[in-house]
Amino acid sequence: MAIAKSSKIAVEGMEEHEILQTVQTWMESCRSMNSRWLLVLDGADDPNQPEFKHLPHRGGQILVTSRFQAVVTAICSNPEDGIHVDSMTPLEAHQLFLRYTKDGSPNQDESTILLNELEFHPLAISQAASYIRQTRKSVAWYLQLFQESMKTKAELLSKSPGTTPFTESEESSSVMTTWKITYHYLQREREDALKLLHIMANFNNLDIPMILLPCGTGSMDAPEKWTTDDHGFLFPSGLRTMLGVEDALGCLQDFSFIAQSKSKDAYNMHRLVQLSTVLE
Fold it and tell me: Distance (Å, rounded) from C-alpha 71 to C-alpha 46?
């Protein structure tokens, strides 16, 4: 709709799919008008969103960012067209931190500790650095506050880059808000994966062994939505078999909530994902 409005395309009274089709046709015709465009879909984590059915096939370039592997499958004829972006290196994280704090010489030791606490997460780094700059506090002050309690960590990570303790953005782009969008998607679509995420969040976030995850020998066709294991533990019936657990693990990996550790039978969870999950 934003493209239609800014390009003054007449779409008044049209249904959503008609608007998308009209915009697609207009963008594809730009090629004949000696005009090229770049279409960016940032944070597209729903493989079923209607825009994917109306992406233009010529006239420009399309860049889609997503944490969900299924999105690559939904929009690319060849899954290898997707580019996996690795975690930031310590050097990259430090450079990003300096760019946002605008402090050429923060205490190296304190900055390193904070970056390790954030596990080099780009959005978390930009939030922390922006908050330090805007409040004119030291890295040591922020680090002490961050390490105070899980609740304090969550409050700090709810601050979007560009906000201060006295002003809040209406559309937050904080780590916590971004995480909750995907969390709510799992609530609606993958209750089994969400339950498994909560189970895993109760362990140390590194090298969570498969042997500790729920898996029974019940029938895959059991009609019950929830069931209990031999110890009375309650979990979705989708986790009653190893196949169900593997499917839920795959979903969590697709959303980058967890990653397989160097040990093939264990998984790692980002410290901030663990924090968000425990507090939810």
Answer: 7
How far is 53 from 24, CA to CA, in rounded Å? 10
Is residue 205 within 8 A of residue 269, CB to CB? The reply is: yes
Contact between 196 and 213 under an 8 Å Cβ cutoff? The reply is yes
Nearest to 202 by CA among 118, 279, 256: 279
Q: What are the residue ranges in the chain where pLDDT is below 70?
A: 1, 31-34, 103-106, 160-173, 215-238, 240
Report which residue type is found at 204: N
Instruction: Detail the DSSP E strand segments found in 30-81.
Output: 37-41, 60-64
φ/ψ of 212, rounded to 5, equals: -90, -10
> How many CB atoms within 10 Å of residue 12?
7
Q: Tell me the two tokens of residue 207.
A: 């090298």
What pTM did the predictor assign?
Answer: 0.64
Distances (CA, A) of 18 to 4, 28, 56: 12, 15, 14
pLDDT tens readout for residues 200-233: 999 999 999 888 887 643 333 444 444 554 545 5
The pair of structure tokens assigned to 74 is 């939904």
* C-beta separation of 237 from 226 below 8 A: yes
